[in-house]
């Protein structure tokens, strides 16, 4: 079986948060993800009943999923792994919900999470994310010095905003972002500018940021293909978040169709993967 790509949609990103209060039901959300041709979904593995219902639908339709979690301690991962043992997941996406000032504070947590993951036989990826252990690009690069084999979920939108990168991107900034992508075993899809965490994909004046993000994702895919086993699966999660991630007008409504953009991103990422695979 050759290397493959799975494109997931974030369940969090299916929240609308409109001023009129209108939300899709869970059944509608899952049917939309299925009918749009996603391979599965990213699911918060916190509430057992919710996990059972969502994974039950996905499994019944031949789809897969990743488990999202937000541990503050090493032991906080245990109930998540228990749910994975019961319901399955292709991997656990871990947002380390701690804000250490020193690298030394991170070591026992990462070692604890990796030990539990090994014992459970479950892949765990550490997500790059603001207001988490990995909030700062420089600090995360120091983590990689300490753990050269650390597997990341690369959500690089946070570093575009966090470091407030100016255009054109400096060679040293590209090098740092490439190093993050060289440790990526999963990618989260969102396009940021230096001032905004989530911008619209089709606004003409924002295309230089879209091209930058897509370029880094393509680099990450090529990097992953060069180091992953021949039958490995790369996951890409479209994660265009609801307000206040999504930009709204004075009336509180979003300035673009976020669901349509998620489907557009899915198709673009699949085309990117196909182009890379054809060149191999």
Span from first to last CA?
A: 15 Å
Radius of gyration: 18 Å
CATH homolog superfamily:
Divalent-metal-dependent TIM barrel enzymes
Give the proportion of residues in helices.
40-55%
User: What is the name of the CATH architecture?
Assistant: Alpha-Beta Barrel
Overall pLDDT score:
98
Give the overall shape, derived from the CA principal axes.
globular
Counting helices, strands and paired strands, the structural category is alpha/beta
Overall CATH class: Alpha Beta
Largest sheet: 8 strands, parallel, barrel
Count of runs of 4 or more consecutive helical residues: 9
Query: How do the strands line up in the largest sheet?
Result: 1-2-3-4-5-6-7-8
Low-confidence stretches: none
Order of helix and strand elements from N to C terminus: EHEHEHEHEHEHHEHEH
CATH topology: TIM Barrel
Number of structural domains? 1
Number of strands: 8
Taken as a percent bin, the fraction of beta residues is 5-15%
Description:
With 280 residues, this protein is of the alpha/beta class. It has a single domain, classed as Divalent-metal-dependent TIM barrel enzymes (TIM Barrel). Helices cover 44% and strands 14% of the residues. It is built from nine helices and eight strands. It has an eight-stranded parallel beta barrel with strand order 1-2-3-4-5-6-7-8, surrounded by five helices. β7, α8 and β8 form a beta-alpha-beta unit. α3 packs parallel to α4. The two termini are 15 Å apart.
């Amino acid at each position: 079986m050759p290397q493959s790509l799975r494109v997931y949609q974030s369940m969090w990103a299916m929240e609308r948060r409109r001023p009129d209060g209108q939300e899709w039901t869970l059944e509608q959300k899952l049917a939309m993800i299925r009918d749009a041709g996603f391979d599965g979904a990213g699911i918060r593995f916190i509430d057992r009943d919710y996990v059972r219902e969502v994974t039950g639908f996905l499994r019944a339709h031949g789809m897969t999923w990743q488990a999202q979690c937000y541990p503050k301690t090493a032991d906080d991962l245990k109930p998540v792994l228990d749910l994975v043992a019961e319901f399955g997941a292709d991997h656990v996406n871990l947002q380390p919900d701690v804000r250490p000032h020193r690298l030394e504070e991170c070591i026992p947590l990462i070692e604890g999470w990796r030990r539990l993951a090994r014992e459970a036989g479950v892949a765990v990826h550490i997500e790059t994310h603001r207001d988490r252990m990995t909030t700062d690009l420089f600090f995360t690069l120091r983590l990689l010095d300490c753990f050269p084999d650390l597997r990341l979920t690369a959500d690089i939108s946070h570093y575009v905003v966090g470091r407030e990168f100016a255009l054109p991107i400096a060679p040293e900034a590209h090098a740092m972002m490439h190093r993050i992508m060289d440790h990526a075993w999963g990618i989260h899809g969102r396009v940021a500018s230096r001032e905004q965490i989530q911008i619209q994909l089709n606004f003409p004046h924002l295309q230089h940021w879209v091209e930058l993000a897509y370029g880094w994702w393509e680099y990450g895919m090529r990097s992953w293909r060069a180091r992953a086993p021949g039958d490995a699966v790369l996951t890409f999660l479209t994660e265009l978040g609801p307000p206040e991630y999504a930009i709204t007008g004075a009336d509180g409504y979003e300035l673009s169709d976020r669901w349509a953009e998620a489907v557009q991103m899915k198709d673009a990422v699949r085309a990117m993967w196909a182009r890379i695979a054809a060149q191999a």
